[in-house]
Amino acid sequence: MPLSLGVHVGQQNMTMDEMRALWRTLDQSGVDWISTWDHFYEAPPKNGTEPHFEALTTLGALAAETRNARIGCLVFYVGYRNPALLAKAATTLDHITNGRFELGLGAGWHIWEATAYGYAFPDIGTRLDMLDEAAQLIRRLLTEERTTYNGKHFQTVDASCLPRPVQSRLPIWIGGLGEKRTLKLVAEHADGWNAAYLSPEEFGRLNEVLNHWCEEEARDPKSIRRGVNVMFNLGVDEEDVERQRLQIVEDWGDMAPRISGGALLCTPDQAVERLAEYQQAGAEEINIALRAPWHEDALDAYLTEVMPKARRL
After folding, report:
1. CB atoms within 10 A of CB 254
2. Which positions ≥6 away from 182 have C-beta within 8 Å?
3. Residue 216 in 3-state DSSP?
4. Structural domains of the chain ordered from first start
5. Which end of the chain has fewer surrounding CB within 10 Å, N or C?
6. Alpha-carbon distance 242 to 145, whole Å?
């Protein structure tokens, strides 16, 4: 299967009209994937000081505005919505897109927004238990005529989810980096694994950990798609790249070294080689992560120069 090149668009610091115009441009430029993220506040966190749209409703607009790209959310935090609601929403979005929707699930991390909005944000072990239950329940709702589920965190009683999705098996992605639980859950339940802002070397290492869990679960490793989100810090020249590097430090603080390691922090001439490093580490899907504002000339160079060359890798 050829390398998939997508765009992960943070729905912040843009008007809805600006974002819809961006989606249309990306779709017409031939990107394979367009996604949102699931936050109430901006990321990186700035205490809710920047405009930000909710993910599920945003996806409805994204679904209607595009014609070609697969779409989804990388990833929905399972503590914000009942999984049965997510199953129903996934089916609806799959029909709006005529079979282009894929569902991403995760254990969450943005405790500041959860607290601000009154959501419980339990310890990571509990959140992973919730992710485990949610992945099982959603798959059953998408495939069974009736689903009764009595988990510790989520329950359904003789629930139907009609109409069925357009796709015979709507893909479920699990996002996260945890070696002991998250990647085990990927091997148990997911059609794809998504990792965010890792260096090619670290992505490759975790990819091998996932292969180990597939062996433990008697699962064919090739049955799980491997995806990575990389920060879009492409610069039009070396001076611009250095400005991008300083911006990462300003935005991310102590997390800047890891984010920089998982960024497209280079010129267009160097970008294809960088993408190739991720592909060689096992990535089958590479999504650039856009946070407004970005350098329009750099994005244009990526779409018109970098992507056509990367597709020949």
Report:
1. 7
2. 107, 128, 131, 174, 176
3. helix
4. 4-310 (3.20.20.30)
5. N
6. 56
Segment holding 9, helix H or strand E: strand 4-9
- The string of pLDDT tens digits covering residues 72-96 is 999 999 999 999 999 999 999 999 9
Distance (Å, rounded) from C-alpha 100 to C-alpha 153?
30
Tell me what percent of the chain is helix, strand and coil, each rounded to the nearest 5.
45, 20, 35
Strands 76-77 and 101-106: parallel
pLDDT attached to residue 232: 97
Q: Residues 86, 135, 38, 199: is their CA dihedral positive or negative?
A: negative
Residue 135: per-residue pLDDT: 98
Mean pLDDT for all residues in the chain: 97
- Mean pLDDT on 294-311: 96
The reported pTM is 0.96
